Amino acid sequence: VLSKAVKDEQLQLLKYNGEWVIEESRELRLLGNRGLVLKSPGEHHAISTYLKKTYHFTDKPLCLQYEVFFPKGVDCGGAYIKLLSHSDDLRLSRFSDATPYTIMFGPDKCGSSHKIHFIFRHRNPVTGTYEEKHARQPELDLSDYFTDQRPHLYTLNVYPDGSFEILVDLTLINKGSLLEDMLSSAASAHEAQEQEDSARAALVDAVQTSDTKSQQHRSSGLVYKYNIFIVYNNIIIVIAYIQWCVCFRSDEPFTVSSVSAVGFELWSLTADVMFDNILLCDSLEVARRWTQDTWGKTHMIEKLLMATVKRPWLWGLYVVTVGLPIILFVSFMWPNKVNMYDYYYKKTDKPQADRRQDSEEQVSHAEGERR
Length: 371
Description:
By secondary structure, the chain is α+β, with helices and mostly antiparallel strands. It has helices spanning 144-147, 193-207, 284-293, 295-310, 314-333, 340-348, 356-370; strands at 6-8, 13-14, 20-24, 34-38, 43-55, 62-69, 76-78, 81-85, 101-110, 113-123, 130-135, 152-158, 163-168, 171-177, 182-183, 211-219, 222-230, 243-246, 259-268, 273-281. Belongs to the calreticulin family.
């Protein structure tokens, strides 16, 4: 479903006017393979589809994977996918950057920054608001995935115990816990602990505190802290350091909003970005078989072709390995050449010798009798 969301209600200007097409790859190594292609550089694109069945985060893992191909490399732009949160008022024709999502995952490049996003939206049980939790970026050089002009398989597995894995081409590049390894973590008591500590230290140094009292009150998950500083120079100075923070710990970080649709909402300076073989399921075995039947086959051809770049002599080996059996098979199965003499006999129906040699022997025998 193409988004018809508008950026100007009065002028009815479409916010997403980038073109999407289903087309075959122009690359020799991917001939015959069709995918969803982002066509318009510098434009905003949005497209989505409903799931046949709503995905609920219960006791089964979430397995998300898809292929991305930058045939021209990428200058600046994203290629991430969004799992849209289930709601009764979800309308894909109005899909935009404001549409609530549960998980956002995939590659993104801007300038010299190369990232593979994993973001999930978690509901704060105290305030009822949703907060974005970002996975830490892996300490790896990700630039090749954006510049080598090869298709890559991006995989995200999230498990009911709150752990997650991120793989590229089936190679693990990042893993962790939704509780411990996410920036602005759902398990954090408050997000500004370091800022609070540094601010308190600065105040103490400034007034040369000789006596400090600290109190804390807690009510309904809200924490209010303040410090009173007393200075002995016949003047009492009271400095209050105040902070309200929301404190909660999610014992079930895997329990997030259900998903009923998936979509791409992107802006890119690069055209012809291809997306293929998108899979969302709750079975690692299904994902494994899907990978073997899709990416596994094309990746094998890709590896064979890439090997010839550094070893051109492999072309000769490929020709012999593939061509020789074909030649032998054709030679064995090719029918014998039709005897033209036999063909003439069948057309005229005249009595003929069985073989040309027999005919010559009969003529010689007849001449001998006449003598």
